Amino acid sequence: MNKSLRLIFTAIILAVGIARAQTPKDVTRVPIAFSGGHDTDPQDRGRPVVLIAAALGVKPEVFRDAFSRVHPAGPGSGGPTDAEARANKKVLMDALGKYGITDQRLNEVSNYYRYMRSKGEMWKHKDAAANALVKGGAIVGYEITDAGAGYSSAPAVSVPGHPEAKAQAELAFGKNLETNGAVSAIKIPSAQAK
Questions:
Q1: What own/partner pairs with CB < 8 Å and gap ≥ 24 does 41-48 have?
Q2: Which among 43, 76, 127, 177 is least surrounded, fewest beta carbons within 10 Å?
Q3: Is the dihedral of CA 74, 78, 82, 85 positive or negative?
Q4: Exposure letters 101-140 (e unless 16+ CB within 10 A, then b)
Q5: Predicted model pTM
Q6: CA-to-CA distance for 54 and 20, rounded, in angstroms?
Q7: Predicted confidence (pLDDT) per residue in 47-68, tens digit
């Protein structure tokens, strides 16, 4: 993990620990239900491009442009031939190498997020966990207990017993595969916070 990302996650962990220690006793913690969070842009045809690009350290548009020149094997074809695989890798490395991406890193990231949607699979991910802080029957805040990873879009947030609760999850993306696409914050929309 790079030093700045390690510092950020250390600060988050410390903040959660401090918040837990400073939360008044009259506050009840209600586990949040997260759902979804694995949407992809239609142009990406199911590929988690935001995760792949972040892990490679480039913008999604850069990865999309590089991948637009690749000729993947069709469904049920058994995969590309060796010659097709080499040609596709050359295309990707010609486009991404100028950003400092090595063949080894491209393989690592590609393999990490590889999945077979046609078999009902999902790319590697870890569900987040959080609590709503309830005082006097009203939600006064949120605490993240596990940021999860592998979210490509913000998951929906619901609080059992509090259908009026509206919250928005925010995500953090980065090069570390274990924390890429993690929930970084849960916020009350400004219209509800007033």
A1: 46/117, 47/113, 48/113, 48/123, 48/150, 48/152, 48/181
A2: 76
A3: positive
A4: beeeebeebeebbebeeeeeeebbbeebebbbbbeeeebe
A5: 0.81
A6: 31
A7: 999 999 999 999 999 999 999 9
